[in-house]
Amino acid sequence: MKSKKSITRKLFLITSIVFVVFITTNLIVQSAFFEQFYIRWKKNNLEHNLIKFKSEYISLKNNEDESNLISSFEEENSYKIIIRDKSGNLKYLTKTADERKDSIKARIMDQIMSSEIANKGGLTKFKEEEKPLIFITDKNPDMVVSVAGIAYDKKKDEIVYAFSSLQPVNEAVQVIKEFYLYFYIGALIVILLLSLIYSNMIAKPLIKITKTAGEMANLNFTEKCEVKSNDEIGALAASLNLLSENLNEALTSLKDANTQLEKDIEKEKKLTEMRKDFVASVSHELKTPITLIEGYTLALNDDVLEGEEKQYFIEVIMDESRKMNSLVSDMLNLSQLESGNFKLVEEKFFLNELVKPVAKKFSSLLHEKSIKLELKLIENIEVKADWNRIEQVLTNYMTNAIRHTNDSGLIRIKMIDKEDAICVEVENSGSKIDANETNKIWDNFYKIDKSRTRKLGGTGLGLAIVKNIILLHGGRCGVENTDLGVKFYFILIKQ
To answer: What is the pTM of this model?
Structure first.
């Protein structure tokens, strides 16, 4: 696997190399070709100026004008002028304080010029061409290397020598080389710093963008690219952030829709299972009374029963009919409660005024099983609830308690003040409920004691009805095992 190279490092190296190569090339070209370029320029300039000087010199008539033109030419162009007439005599020579040096200079230049003219075909040929002859003088112990030019004035039959020392350019080249050495070192430092700054300006935003894109690839859209520059990189970062937000919204919506779909599917599964269980439970609960009614009715129809036996059969049929009616009534109540369309008829009342009459109506059943009833009520606790439905809750709790309390047992009804709520407990002595069944007893048709007598046997819907009624009131209900036996309770909000 290839190792990743930092874009900062790449930009730094590329920028540094480009600038270093550029400056190095410039230094090499300057060192190698500047002198040659300058000499060529000097020769071209001398040729141009000689032609110009000759054209002006021809038109002059007196020596004073000629002297002024020569002086002006020498001052403007830094050239020295020597003029010889048609006889070869020296007509003009730039004067200095040392006449001996002037004569030596004139003699040396004569030798150099004569030698150069001879090399180019001789004086006759040179005069016929009438073209300036430009060249670089050879090294001479008495004269520095110079750029020189020879022009022939045909009208006056004179030869004009012009020359200028090249020593300044040699010194300039040396100075430039030394200057460029320091400049090169300084430029390298500046280039490295600028390259680092430049690479960071480009690379840091790109690194942030890459990090954000990586988080997006991992479906993490909380990471934002904080790039504030008003350029293409800033626009790219803003677009990436916008893309991240849109993807996050789309993914969130998709997740929510998927979650809701899973809930709907799960709910549909539960409803399907509930319908199956409901049909099976109803079929089971109705089968026994229908079978008993059918059997006892056939016996009565045969008219073979008399007296007390006949009366017993009739009572059984009536009892089973009542049980079927109770089952159907509970099923209708539960269906209404679970549908979500059931409306409570709420009113304010003192809860103890409801508990007392409900407990009293079970006195005959309590007496039949010699069950002792204890009431620990709190007066003047007002609630806003549906009187009939809370009465149904207490009735189901009491019926359930009597059913599971042994003869000579105890049932205790207790109210507990919980500041903003009131709790009503119905506790009975007897067997405790297995921990695995404490949640199941609130399901439809669930019965702990599968073998209880039909006289006190319930429909298996009582606690399911209780749960739905209390939930509609915004309260909660539950069951706990106690030292005495089992305690069922519900909690309502006080007014």
So the answer is: 0.43
